[in-house]
Each structure stands twice: as C-alpha cells, then as structure tokens.
C-alpha cells in the first residue's frame, strides 16, 4: 500500500475512460488502512536493528485487529531479525497452538524455536506438548526429549522441568485399568531414570540436583498409590525422600500422611505421625496437633495416652532448645557489646596516653631551651657541626644560626628559600593544629564514607566539595589525617538532606586522580560488625556477561564497540584493583536475556588486540563463609590468626624448597657465621632464636676472609 497515491495517479492518466466508482471506493478504503499501519512501518524504518520494541508494538496492534494472516506475517518479520529472543518464539508458538492449530505450521515453528534458542527449557516443553497434541509418533517424541536433555540448560531446575513434562506425557499414555502394560513399565523405568539422572549428571555439573523437595519422587509415589494401588512402593519412595534431608520439614510429613490417609490405613498413618513428631524441627506444634486429632477420632485410650505423652515430651524438648538458643544469642550479643566497649575504652586510653606523652615531650623541650639559655656558650661551638639525616647542607645550618642571632638583635638576616618539601611539612604542621572533630553517629543518614583516595591529594576538602556538590548542598567535609598531618585517603562527607546522601552513592567507583573512589553508607561497625557494602549481584544474571582475558589496554569504549553489535548494551564495568589498574575482566549488561545469549555465542573465543577472550553468562561462585566458633569455647585445633605459607602473603603458596628438605623432622639452627649446629635430639628445650644482626655485623661477616 505504500506509495499507492503515485500508482493511482499513473492509472488515472493511463485510463482513457473515467475511473469506475467501485475502484475509487476501494482506493479510499485502502488509504484508510494505510493510515493505520503507516506509523508502525515508519517506526521500523527509522529504528536500529534488532527493532524488538517496535516489532512488539506492531504485534500488539495486529493482535487487536485479529487478522490471522497479518499476525503470522508480522511474527515472521520480527523473528527474522530477532531469532534469538526466546520470549518472542514463545508468544508466536502460543498463538499458533491456540488459534491456528495447523499441524505442519505449528510443528515447524516449534522446531525452529528450539533450534535457535536451545538453552530455553520452556520452548522444549511447548514442543513436546504440541507433538503430543497433534498425535506425533511416540518414538519421535522420545527422540526429541533426548535432544532436549543434550541441549545444555544453564540451571539445574531446567532439567527437573523437562523431565517432569516428559513423565506427564508418559503417564497420559498408560491405561491404568490394566494391572500391567508396556506403557506402565516404561513410565516406571522413566521415573527411575529421572531420579538417577538428577543425582548423577545434574548434580555433578551444578553441585545440586535442582530438586531438593524430590517432587519427581513425590509424583511417582502418587501415581503408585492412586493409580496403581501399590502403597508398598509408595511407602518405599517416601522413605527414600525422607532420607534425603527432608525429614525435618513438617510439610513433607503431612504430604506423606495425607497420601497414607487417602490410600493407606490408620496404622501406617499413626506410624508416620509418630516419626514426624520425633524428626520435625521447623513446625513441631503443627505435627503434634495432627497426631492428637487422629487419635481423638480413631484411636483407643492407650493410643491417646501414648500420643499425649510423646507430644508433651517433644514440645518440652523443643521449648528447652529454643530457650538455649535464645540464651546463646543473647550471650553473643552481650559479648559483642562488651568487646565494642573494650575497643572504645582502649582507643580512649591510647588517645589519652598519646596526649600525655605529647605534653611531656613539650615540657622537656621547653626545659632544654631554658638550659640552652644558661649554658649555650660552652656547648654552642659544637652545635653547628651536628647534622641529621634529611637536613640541608652546611649553609642551611649557618643561615639558621644567623636567623637566631638577627632575631636577638632585631636585625633582618637573609631570607631562607622555601622548598616544596618544607611547604609540605608546613602544611602537615598546620593540619596537626586543627582540632579533631569526632563523628556524630546521629547524622549517619545524611553522611557518606569516602575511601581509596590518593594520599597525595592536595586540599581534599576543596577537591571533594566540587565533586559532591552535584548531589546536593554539602554541610561539611571531614578528611582524616594521621598524627603527622598527612592525608590518610578517606573522609566523611555530610549533606544537608538525606536524599543528597543517597544520590552521592551513585558516585561509587568514580575515578579521581587515577584511582576508583569508593563511596558507601556511613554505618557504625561496632553496632553492625557484619555490615558490608557490595553493590553488585552475586547470583546468576542471565542478561549480564562475564568477560575474561581482556588486554589491560582495552578501554570501556572499545569494549562497547565490540558488544553493541549483538544487542543494546545498558552498562559496562571494567574490573580494576584498588589502585585503578585493570585486571583484564569486565561485566557487560544487556537489555534482556536473549541479547546476552546471542552475545555469548558470537563473542566467546573472539580475539581482541591479540588476546583471546572468554565470554559466559554472569554466575559468580558462592563464597563459602567459615563457621564461627562458639563464644567462650576454644577450639583444640585453633591456629594463629595470621598463618602464611612459605611465600608470605603471596597469592600462590607453592614452596620452592625441595621435598627432601621438607621431610626433615628435626629442624636445624644456623649460627651467625652460617655453619650448621647439630642440637641433641634428646633436648626438650625449644631452640634459641638466632641473634639479630645489625648492619655492622653483616659488614664484618662479608669482609672476613
């Protein structure tokens, strides 16, 4: 219909007879149709590949119009440019399954979907259902299921879902009116294979089976109990389920009890509830109540008495355990408070001792100055000849003496040049005189903590104020200086309003003077010792990529040029160390999972500046947190706090010492001259530490012939 006006004008000019009324009427009707579609077509023409959002809007419009041919065509146009988008395939296949229902068309679309997006388990499940719906041969469906198992899903739960869909299909094939059949045996063998597959293949790959609640085994037990009337097999399956760590959950026992209640007998129900009372740890009260309800309706007096005694004993133990846990938690909290108070007191004592020491040093210097006033004539002759490390040359000493003399007689001597080092020393001295301002914890909500700044930053107050004023009005900036007056690389920035402090957190990792600046909330570590700020996710993110092996010279812009060819890049983060040096790693965030999956297929193994990079979906490994020892109990296997290997704090602890020397059971001590002294093996005294040698001792040893 586009450019139809020009075609109509040519037709009008060519025709010798007047244009019929019907043609004019249809032409005007076509123009009206064109006006409806024109905005969507123009949006597609102006948009950049892959035009997913524009196609989605066009599809929604066509779905409302309801023309099946046009809906199919717009889906096909969209998939031609977005063949790696699983959601688009899912919507298209759902429309075909529910509306068109044409076998060849439906199965072809499903086949193309799993071929383009094999990692999406939902597409495989829809394909199996569509094949069953159109009565495809059982062998072909089984073959397609095997392909799905080899597709390489990225989560353990995906394998549970595909197995469940296939088992549902096999269950629907069985005629349970017969006691035994080929289909029933195939279903049972498939259940057994599914349990073994999750235990072996999936658990080996993902370190988890993906089915902690054993849903497949539960469904197997329900099929055996309800459809096959085989309660013995169902009980065996539930025993197996409980041995896999589910015996402590009340809902698992109640599920088994309900199955036994519906298809078993009272004796097994009572037995199951008695075991549940003994093993349940999350909601024992609920299980006890169910047991008492059973005995109230069907039990004898002896059964009632036994149930009451068992539930009372169990609930008493539970109450005792909870009380102990509460006491232990209170003791730990109290211990943490005491430790915080001790640390606070120790800091106060240390500060007071430093202050007292400083005062004593000042008094001593004053006394020395007074002594020099009386006895300076005798000792003054030797003073100029003394020079300390870091002092200037002899002229500097003479100038200093001249300044003292001119100061006494009121004359002005030659001015001493002010070197940069002296300027820095003066700045440090001036900072020493600034009174220290203690942090007010009541203003933590309007304060941020800034760290990892350069120690050589000049005037950090001015520099940081310019930086943080973009977030809101800054009330105060408190940089932290050492006792010598040098900047320690961190400070507190206090704002007038809380929203400004929250906005300032967005400046985290901003590069300032060549180093990434860390900006975090101001939190009292004494009150919140476990508080840590990590702004990035540590779980699986399907729309984000992890790239390793990048050259250190690769910039953010260069990496973006490589990645944007496979989708819309929302964010790129180059990983650096605390000094701002790149580590050759990066995280790239795309708009959706489909674009990230496409980028993995296209970029993994790509060469960037003669470096082969590795690309994968971002899934950081879980960090194992060591168990904290109980308070007040020292472990018999306790180790010192700082234990390093043969290479100190190095990342690798590979020892360069030969194994033969490492196997020696009796250590040998070295004397000062390097000769080995054999200590008697029967001596129980610890070997003496070698005497520390000064530079003069080393010089004597080297010069000795």
TrEMBL record:
Q: Where is this region: Disordered?
A: 326-433, 654-705
Q: What is its main location?
A: nucleus
Enumerate composition-biased segments (Acidic residues): 369-381
Where is this chain's protein located in or outside the cell?
A: Nucleus
Alphabetically sorted, this entry's keywords are:
mRNA processing, mRNA splicing, Nucleus, Repeat, RNA-binding
Domain of life (superkingdom): Eukaryota
Q: Where is the sequence biased in composition, kind Polar residues? A: 675-684
Q: Where is the composition biased (Basic and acidic residues)?
A: 326-351, 413-433
GO cellular component terms? ASAP complex; cytoplasm; nucleoplasm
Q: Which GO terms describe its molecular function?
A: RNA binding
Q: Which residues belong to any copy of the RRM domain?
A: 446-524, 543-620
GO BP = mRNA splicing, via spliceosome
Q: PROSITE patterns per the record? A: RRM
What this protein is called in its record is SART3 protein
Q: What is the lineage of its organism?
A: Eukaryota, Metazoa, Chordata, Craniata, Vertebrata
Q: Which gene encodes it?
A: Sart3
């Amino acid at each position: 219909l586009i450019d139809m006006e020009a075609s109509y004008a040519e037709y009008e000019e060519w025709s010798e007879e007047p244009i019929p009324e019907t043609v004019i009427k249809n032409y005007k009707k076509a123009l009206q149709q064109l006006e409806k579609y024109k905005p969507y077509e123009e949006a597609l023409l102006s948009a950049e590949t892959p035009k997913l959002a524009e196609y989605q809007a066009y599809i929604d419009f066509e779905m409302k119009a309801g023309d099946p041919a046009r809906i199919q065509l717009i889906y096909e146009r969209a998939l031609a440019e977005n063949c790696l988008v699983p959601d688009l395939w899912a919507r298209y296949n759902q429309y075909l399954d529910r509306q068109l229902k044409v076998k060849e068309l439906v199965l072809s679309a499903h086949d193309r979907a799993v071929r383009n997006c094999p990692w999406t388990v939902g597409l495989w499940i829809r394909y199996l259902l569509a094949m069953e719906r159109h009565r495809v041969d059982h062998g072909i469906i089984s073959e397609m299921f095997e392909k799905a198992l080899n597709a390489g899903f990225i989560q353990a739960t995906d394998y549970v879902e595909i197995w469940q869909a296939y088992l549902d299909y096999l269950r629907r094939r069985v005629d349970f009116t017969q006691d035994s059949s080929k289909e029933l045996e195939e279903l049972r063998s498939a259940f057994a294979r599914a349990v073994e597959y999750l235990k072996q293949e999936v658990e080996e790959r993902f370190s988890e089976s993906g089915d902690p609640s054993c849903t497949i085994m539960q469904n197997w037990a329900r099929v055996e109990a309800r459809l096959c009337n085989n309660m013995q097999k169902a009980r065996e399956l539930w025993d197996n389920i409980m041995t896999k760590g589910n015996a402590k959950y009340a809902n698992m026992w109640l599920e088994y009890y309900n199955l036994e209640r519906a298809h078993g007998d009272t004796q097994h129900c009572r037995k199951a509830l008695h075991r549940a009372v003994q093993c349940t740890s999350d909601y024992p009260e609920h299980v006890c109540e169910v047991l008492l309800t059973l005995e109230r309706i069907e039990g004898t007096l002896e059964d009632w008495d036994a149930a009451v005694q068992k539930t009372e004993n169990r609930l008493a133990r539970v109450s005792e355990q909870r009380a102990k846990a509460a006491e232990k938690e209170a003791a730990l909290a109290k211990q943490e408070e005491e430790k915080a108070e001790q640390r606070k007191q120790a800091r106060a004592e240390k500060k007071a001792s430093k202050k007292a020491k400083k005062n004593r040093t000042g008094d001593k210097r004053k006394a020395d100055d007074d002594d020099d006033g009386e006895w300076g004539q005798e000792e003054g002759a030797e003073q100029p000849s003394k020079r300390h490390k870091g002092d200037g040359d002899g002229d500097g000493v003479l100038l200093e003496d001249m300044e003292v003399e001119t100061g006494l007689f009121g004359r002005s001597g030659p001015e001493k040049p002010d070197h940069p080092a002296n300027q820095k020393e003066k700045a440090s001295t001036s900072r020493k005189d600034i009174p220290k301002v203690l942090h007010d914890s009541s203003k933590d909500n309007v304060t941020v903590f800034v760290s990892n700044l350069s120690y050589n930053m000049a005037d950090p107050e001015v520099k940081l104020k310019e930086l943080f004023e973009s977030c809101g009005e800054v009330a105060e900036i408190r940089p932290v200086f050492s006792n010598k007056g040098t900047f320690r690389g961190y400070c507190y920035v206090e704002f007038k309003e809380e929203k400004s402090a929250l906005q300032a957190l967005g400046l985290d990792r901003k590069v300032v003077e060549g180093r990434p600046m860390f900006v975090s909330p101001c939190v009292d570590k004494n009150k919140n010792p476990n508080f840590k700020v990590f702004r990035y996710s540590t779980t699986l993110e399907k729309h984000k990529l992890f790239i390793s092996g990048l050259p250190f010279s690769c910039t953010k812009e260069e990496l973006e040029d490589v990645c944007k060819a496979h989708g819309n890049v929302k964010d790129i983060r180059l990983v650096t160390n605390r000094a701002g040096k790149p580590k050759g790693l990066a995280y790239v965030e795309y708009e959706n999972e489909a674009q990230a999956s496409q980028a993995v297929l296209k970029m993994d193994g790509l060469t960037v500046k003669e470096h082969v990079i590795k690309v994968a979906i971002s899934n950081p490994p879980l960090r194992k947190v060591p168990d904290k020892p109980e308070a007040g109990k020292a472990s018999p296997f306790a180790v010192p706090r700082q234990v390093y290997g043969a290479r100190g704090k190095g990342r690798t602890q590979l020892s360069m010492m030969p194994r033969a020397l490492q196997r020696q059971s009796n250590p040998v001590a070295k004397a000062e001259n390097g000769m080995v002294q054999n200590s008697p093996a029967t001596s129980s005294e610890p070997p003496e530490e070698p005497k520390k040698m000064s530079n003069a001792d080393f010089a004597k040893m080297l010069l000795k012939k």
